[in-house]
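The material for today's practical consists of a large collection of protein records. Read left to right, the backbone structure tokens trace the chain's path through space. An example says more than a description, so a record of this kind follows:
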Amino acid sequence: MNFSNSCAIDVADIKKVIISKCPLVVGIREKYVRTITPSDSTSPEHSEDCISQLQRAFNDLKENDIKTIFFYYSGHYSKADGFIIQKRKVDTVVPSKEQEYKCEHLSLSNFKDMLRSFLVQNNGKTADRKDKNFIITLDCCEAPIIRLDDSASHDDNISQLNACRPDQAAIKEPDGSGSLFKKIFIQALTMKSTNDNCFLQRDGMRCGICPFMGEDFITIGSLNTYIGRHMKEYQKLLCTEPQMPLQYASSDVKIAYLVDSTSELSFTMKFGEIQKEYKIAYHFFNNTSQLKETLFNEFMDKMLDKEKDSQLQLKVDTYKDILQIVAKTGPKDKDKHKLKLNNLAQVMSAWNGKRELYVEMREISTIEDGMVGVFNDDTEKFLSFLDECKYKKQEEPDHTTYKIDLALFVKVKDDSLKQLQVAILAYRKKEKNAELHIIRPCMRDAKGLRKMRDDFVCFKIEKVKTPLETADTESK
């Protein structure tokens, strides 16, 4: 793996932690996060250069009235040229191993100008310096000290934690998983909440440093101490001078919550009369879609014995939305006393409020909200009404979709479809231009013949564009 890819992994790993809502250790909203990674493109006109992207990111955050910017850089730095922001191939014809790259640099002085631009209000006036702050982490060799006023001994607006001293090299892990500093940085923020082992123990060493000591918050100072002590232990194996993180801050700034919890998220999985308990160790979830991905395979495995034996196992990416997470709000034996949890904030609120969380398949009556799935003994018989309907058929490698106009479907005479038809009639009062998609998982057998799954089918409403909407889209 090349160095640029390793740095991109660092940035992606840091983003995953700072936007995580479960556990919530930093709590930055994803809409206020900008990630900038270089492209190997040879055509600058087809992609905005990274320096322009960086300046635009500062401008966007300023317009959103952000008070504090957390800036994490992973890459190369040299005192002569500054930060290497982008590399472009010189010639696409040349093989990658022999390829030459043209590097674009961001000088330290130009970077400081970007920081100063954040302090300037949209009306051109300088903002109150106490009202704007930066937390800067430079994970690079020869990491420089950032001061907006070069004559000052420190800068009250900047709290900085670098991966190494200005005269040291930063270490990347040999397995391509990113930097050593990043690994310990993330461990410090998450180890107590995820109940994970220290990376030193995973590498066969003993750790007498963990767990992270503190009360409610992790500060730049405590983080610096934690990372430094781990680096010293790790680099004893390398027989080299330890790469030491370095803190520059006029005061000890809080950077994260110290989430000291070994609790697990507990769910009751429910399918018909079957109920089974399932627990998930704290993980990094930013939305319910990610949580459902974890729950889906476990639900299918625990609740449906035939799923284990099926050659046509349901793919989580395609079918995870047939599940819903609910909190019971009344007696356990009363299904009507439940609250559907639509986002991760609601899930965590219910969990922290000691509510019982249930995972179950969404009811057909909720088709307006998205895909619903139905398990049955004979799908062919269940879908026999298709013989009497006009439909469009679309075949994909792993599923077949039958598309039927809603107005035609509600006229089908079949008692087994009544509940679905009632839901669609209610939907048609608000939206006429839509069709019903009937989705069946499938595969090709050893002879190349298309084989449908005979015990499962999905239903989903899809809005159909009117001729006017289609023409408008094409004109754009």
Remarks:
- Residues 1 and 175 are 8 Å apart (CA to CA).
